Fold this protein.
Amino acid sequence: MTTTMRSLVVLGAGTAGTMVVNKLRHRLPTTEWRITVVDKDDVHDYQPGYLFLPFGLIEPEQVRRSRHGLITEGVELVLGDVDRVDPVAREVSLLDGRTLVYDELVIASGTSPRPDQTPGMLGPEWHRSVGEFYTYEGATALREALAGFSGGRLVVHVTEMPIKCPVAPLEFAFLADDFLRRRGLRERTEIVYVTPLDGAFTKPVASRELGHLLADKGITVETDFMVEHVDQERRVLVSYDEREVAYDQLVTIPLNMGADFVARSGLGDELNYVPVDKHTSLSTKHASIFVLGDASNIPTSKAGSVAHFSVEVFVENFIEHVHGQDMTHAFDGHANCFVESGGGKAMLLDFNYDTEPLTGTFPVPHLGPMTLLKQSRANHLGKLAFRHIYWNILLPGRPLGLPAQMSMAGKVPAA
Amino acid sequence: MPTTTIAGHAVEVNDEGFLTHPDQWSDDLGSELARLIGIELTDDHWKLVHFLRDDFAHLGETATLRRVSTQTGTPIKSLFDLFPGKPAKKMAYVAGLPKPKGCV
């Protein structure tokens, strides 16, 4: 019997892409499937670590590894920039002229901060008084800026939703409060949280349980603020309705967008996210394109935990899909995120497409040890331990022992 | 959730007055919701409200200001003129949809 070798191409070797190739390599026979993963460089960052870099709570080398070392044997890692995908010819062309032919394609190219999309954000003060922590370069530059900060107005600003790791800006504000207290600068610093939404907390249960945190820490909130431009000379954010927020040190989360090749290939929405079926991650337009991680438009948080849970569901579906069967597994939008709240404590959020973050315990009903939507030391330790879990269990595709589907056991339903 | 009567229709609303069942919405209701926040709906308003309704029906999520702006070709500044102060929230309110939310 002759079998034709089939080809799976994965675009992006980040959290989702790495898990996909490592898991599928063990499920697809090497005699039947070639697996190729493409990324622009050989650097894989543990992105949750960026939050801690500016405060010196983690060292730069602890967040960075080579992609090669994280990808299992039998998977080819191609380094290059994607020019475009041709879904009809089933080809991916790279900017250097190479072409990759696929039978099945997974787009896992994530989302990136785009300071170029807000006038005045890039400029001589970029990565100085206009800081950010969503890139390795930004987070390390912000560490320098904060080391030299002597007080004034520290403004934490979200440009527009959706952003990846949507609680990170709040965590940054909480950790900044801690950091400034330790350095004796808190009395001389005003911390302002600026959001395009109508509050720092926008869901009823979280708002009720956590609304006090900002007031307790003396952090003021500027709501409904849609930035129009940044005036680096006057050090102000200016909104579309002509309000101004002055800063001495700005920490902004620029507009987040999916990869440019998605737009060039005609596959994306206005932010270059690929529309998919939210339960199967299959493109709504092309039956051989799946989209995992932050690159899709699914209505849940852009977060590593979502990538993890959705990849687990995807792998089971993909095996059915390539055998010509119906996909029988459905992703529920499950997200599970640690939230640093300062003072060596953290909270844990657990939610899905249909359920907002609730109170309760995790992962064992009623026992925990972690508490949902409530600050605890155990949650903080969980968050710290997670870096090791990420490198050693999640990326290699080993089972973590947490079900992909969210469970309501041990959780208190919203009133 | 409290039930209230708007433009002769019994609808369920949340603490902030947003409809909790988007399918209870109608054009009549939209006009009345707009009136309650001091807005008289013109064709320009309706174009945006109907876009929000269609988009929500497809994606299950309220469109962000940026999405409304690019998909309807309306500059963000004009959205602020049409729905002063808080366009994202006011458009969602008039269209009977959930306000734009973060994850907490």
Remarks:
- The mean pLDDT of chain B is 93.
